[in-house]
Design brief:
The chain is mainly beta. The chain has strands at 2-7, 10-12, 18-26, 28-39, 46-52, 57-59, 67-72, 77-82, 91-101, 106-110, 114-118. The strands form two sheets. Strands 2, 4, 5, 6, 9, 10 and 11 form a seven-stranded mixed β-sheet that branches. A hairpin with a 6-residue loop joins strand 4 (28-39) and strand 5.
Length: 120
């Protein structure tokens, strides 16, 4: 199986910055797409940003210009640099990976989530 472990959440004031990290481990042949999603209280989980193994990136309109996603294929890791944070960015952030396993079967995996709170 595959495990995703996130880190880097916390409490930050409006206008501040945080950097989230996510590392994948386990039976991995290739990670096709990695991404970040978030879920605020009472709302559905939504896409924040995704990045393919080739480096193609997609952002939600609400974070464009403020958040930057990157990945290190050698480390099976993905990062989310969040700048100019707003109270509406408050949510649990989840790492996601579309993985081709060593068995060449494919699976979709989620991290446990990390809380980001933007408040003064």
């Amino acid at each position: 199986q595959v495990q995703l472990v996130e880190s880097g959440g916390g409490l930050v004031q409006p206008g501040g910055s945080l950097r989230l990290s996510c590392a994948a481990s386990g039976s991995i042949f290739r990670i096709n797409v990695m991404g970040w999603y978030r879920q605020a209280p009472g709302k559905q989980r939504e896409l924040v940003a995704t990045i393919t193994s080739g480096g193609s990136i997609n952002y939600a309109d609400s974070v464009k210009g403020r958040f930057t996603i990157s990945r290190d294929n050698a480390k099976n890791a993905v990062y989310l640099q969040m700048n100019s944070l707003k109270p509406e960015d408050t949510a649990v952030y989840y790492c996601n990976a579309d993985v081709t396993r060593r068995s060449y079967s494919r699976g979709d995996y989620w991290g446990q989530g990390t809380q980001v709170t933007v408040s003064s």
